[in-house]
């Protein structure tokens, strides 16, 4: 239950301004957005980056699902059905399946994910999301060696050295540097950029690298070796090699000295590291370096999470089941085994016989073999607009844009829960929020299975 704060809404000349809105796009979850609203339509957006702004503004000309659509066979055309019929059909598909996969979740609310976990347990299915193939190895590394983390607020207020490793926030998280890490003025860093050293380590000369004080161009896939080299240098070991990762050892020695000399350093990493040759071992080595540095000064490390609530999926699953992703309920209790219960693997091995997809587009992003399986099995797809995934569906559920059309919560990339303000009503025909229709589906499934509602 949310308590709406009307002090964040002002009315002027027939227009409504909603302040402190959270941008439901990437893991930065910027919560300083202002939306100008007229006749229940967002007409202007302030403070957001270009991508964030486009996310808020209505997509003129794009089809919006506002009624559930059904087809018995995937060769048939879709026909509109009522919400009651849609939820009844969704319940039947999930109950009838021997092993349903409930997939996605990274672009919907914490409240919706919570209902999704309950639903997966009821139908003895598996719940998983985009995290498996984005920062899944980072999560594995954290499970193995721990996490020298911090909040983005701490970085903003204290950091005097920022390292972006295998990531390009200027393109992927456009306000990350200006709001949290590099340019922003902080409590102990009043002069923002002037008090911070920016290092970019990447094989490519990215837009972020162009802004750096130092860009270190490394050989693709050499990350693990570099982290272990830096750790050895910091521990005072003698290095006999002349270069590591295509970079002279003198450069690494200087970087190690700079890192030790900083009073608060922050490493941010992206998929360029997570999916480099040694995968989770590269991330574990990066965390190890951070832990070593913490013995000398203060450093933190953080993955740059992509979707705005991909961290939320890990968090909700962890507090409800004890596991962060790829959770299976076939035996009535949660089990977790990467490769066995992760979405792509289950689809590739044809081990799932029905699927509910929400707030993800696996039809566009998963490997061909997995998509072929999605095309073969009954698919319930919840989305706002048509996507390659909805093209494969039997049942399309109209999605609600949580965080814009519904009050909701998400977890920012640093694991901080963020409240998301409602700005406009969803279009007529859509549910109040994704959590609302999922909650109703849970109740229908419980009724059909004769399980009392808790
Ligand atoms: S950086 Fe990301 S979260 Fe922030 S406004 Fe841009 S798209 Fe939205």
Can you walk me through this structure?
By secondary structure, the protein is of the alpha/beta class. It folds into two domains: 69-134 and 308-403 and 422-449, Rossmann fold, CATH 3.40.50.740; 136-303, Dimethylsulfoxide Reductase, domain 2 (3-Layer(aba) Sandwich). The chain is 33% helix and 20% strand. It has 16 helices and 22 strands. Strands 6-5-20-19-18-7-8-16-17 form a nine-stranded mixed sheet. A five-stranded parallel sheet has the order 11-10-9-14-15. The longest helix is centred in the C-terminal third of the chain and has 16 residues, at 434-449. It is globular and about 70 Å long. The model has no long low-confidence stretch (mean pLDDT 95). It binds iron/sulfur cluster. Iron/sulfur cluster binds next to helix 1.
Looking at this protein, list some descriptive labels.
single chain, 454 residues, alpha/beta, Rossmann fold, Dimethylsulfoxide Reductase, domain 2, 2 domains, 22 strands, 33% helix, globular, binds iron/sulfur cluster
Summarize the structure.
By secondary structure, the chain is α/β, with parallel strands linked by helices. It has 16 helices and 22 strands. It has two domains: 69-134 and 308-403 and 422-449, Rossmann fold (3-Layer(aba) Sandwich); 136-303, Dimethylsulfoxide Reductase, domain 2.
Main sheet strand line-up: 6-5-20-19-18-7-8-16-17
- Principal-axes geometry comes out as globular
Mind describing the biggest β-sheet? Answer: 9 strands, mixed
Instruction: Quote the distance from N terminus to C terminus.
Output: 17 Å
């Amino acid at each position: 239950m949310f308590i709406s704060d009307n002090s964040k809404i002002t009315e002027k000349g027939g227009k409504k301004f909603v302040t402190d809105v959270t941008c439901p796009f990437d893991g930065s979850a910027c919560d300083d957005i202002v939306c100008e609203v007229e006749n229940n339509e967002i007409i202007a957006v302030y403070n957001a980056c270009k991508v964030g702004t486009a996310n808020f503004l209505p997509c003129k000309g794009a089809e919006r699902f506002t009624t559930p659509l059904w087809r018995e066979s995937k060769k048939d055309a879709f026909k509109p059905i009522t919400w009651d019929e849609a939820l009844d059909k969704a319940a039947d598909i999930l109950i009838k399946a021997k092993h349903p996969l409930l997939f996605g979740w990274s672009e919907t609310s914490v409240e919706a994910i919570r209902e999704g976990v309950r639903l997966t347990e009821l139908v003895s299915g598996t719940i998983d999301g985009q995290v498996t193939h984005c920062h899944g190895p980072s999560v594995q590394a954290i499970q193995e060696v721990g996490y020298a983390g911090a909040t983005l607020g701490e970085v903003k207020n204290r950091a005097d050295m920022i390292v972006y490793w295998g990531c390009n926030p200027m393109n992927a998280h456009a306000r990350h540097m200006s709001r949290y890490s590099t340019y922003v003025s902080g409590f102990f860093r009043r002069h923002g950029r002037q008090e911070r050293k920016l290092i970019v380590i990447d094989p490519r000369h990215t837009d972020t690298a162009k802004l750096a004080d130092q860009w270190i161009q490394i050989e693709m896939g050499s990350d693990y070796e570099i982290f272990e080299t830096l750790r050895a240098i910091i521990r005072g070991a003698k290095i006999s090699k002349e270069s590591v990762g295509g970079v002279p050892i003198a450069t690494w020695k200087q970087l190690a000295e700079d890192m030790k000399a900083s009073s608060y350093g922050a490493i941010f990493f992206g998929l360029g590291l997570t999916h480099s040759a040694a995968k989770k071992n590269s991330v574990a080595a990066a965390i190890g370096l951070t832990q070593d540095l913490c013995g000398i000064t203060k450093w933190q490390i953080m993955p740059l999470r992509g979707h705005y609530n991909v961290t939320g999926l890990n968090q909700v699953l962890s507090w409800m089941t004890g596991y962060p992703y790829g959770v299976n309920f076939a035996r009535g209790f949660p089990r977790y085994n990467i490769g066995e219960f992760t979405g792509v693997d289950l689809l590739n091995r044809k081990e799932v016989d029905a699927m509910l997809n929400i707030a993800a587009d696996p039809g566009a992003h998963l490997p061909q073999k997995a998509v072929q399986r999605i095309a073969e099995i009954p698919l319930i797809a919840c989305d706002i607009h048509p996507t390659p995934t909805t093209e494969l569906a039997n049942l399309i559920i109209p999605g609600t844009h949580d965080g814009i059309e519904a009050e909701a919560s998400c977890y920012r990339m640093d694991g901080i829960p963020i409240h998301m303000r409602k700005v406009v009503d969803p279009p007529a025909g859509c549910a109040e929020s994704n959590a609302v229709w999922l909650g109703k589906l849970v109740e229908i499934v419980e009724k059909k299975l004769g399980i009392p509602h808790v």
